[in-house]
Amino acid sequence: MSQLPWKPIRLRNLEQQIDQAFDELIHGQWGLCPPSGNWQPEIDIFETPDFYLVEADVPGVDPDEIHVTVEEHSLTISGWRRSGCVEKSAQGICIERRQGSFLRRIPLEQPVDPYHVKRENQAGILRLQIPKQKLSPPV
C-alpha cells in the first residue's frame, strides 16, 4: 500500500472567504463600497467642515503604482503590490501577504474640489486631504 505525502488542511483560505463574505455583507448593508481585487488596503476616512482626510495602509506598494482619482462625489484608489521575492527559482512555502491589484471606490457625501487634493505617502501610509467645494449661500 503506497502512502501519499501528508498535506495539512489550509484553513487560511476558508478564513479569508468567511472574512470576505462578512465584509461584503457589512459594506453592502451600509452603502460603502464592497472590496474588489485580490486584496484591499484598509482605510480610515475623517471629515472636517472644510475637507475629507483619508488614510490608506499600502505597505510594500511603490508610490508610483498607486493611482488616485477624485471626482465631485467619489474617491478611487487603485494600484498594484508586487511579490517581495526577487529570486525567480524560489518556491513559496508559506505565502500570507497578499499581492496583485487593488481598487477602492469611496462615495463622498459632500462635493469636493478634485484639483486641490494634497497627497502624501510615508511609511506605507497614503494620506489624502480632499477639500470640499465651497458652496455659495442660497440667494
From TrEMBL:
Q: Of which family is this protein a member? A: Belongs to the small heat shock protein (HSP20) family.
SUPFAM superfamilies of this UniProt entry? Answer: HSP20-like chaperones
Which domain of life does this protein belong to?
A: Bacteria
Q: Which InterPro entries match?
A: A-crystallin/Hsp20_dom (IPR002068), HSP20-like_chaperone (IPR008978), Small_HSP (IPR031107)
List the signal peptide residues: none
Q: What is this protein called?
A: Hsp20/alpha crystallin family protein
Taken from the record, one Pfam family name reads HSP20
Q: Residue ranges of the SHSP domain? A: 34-139
Q: Which organism is it from?
A: Gimesia maris
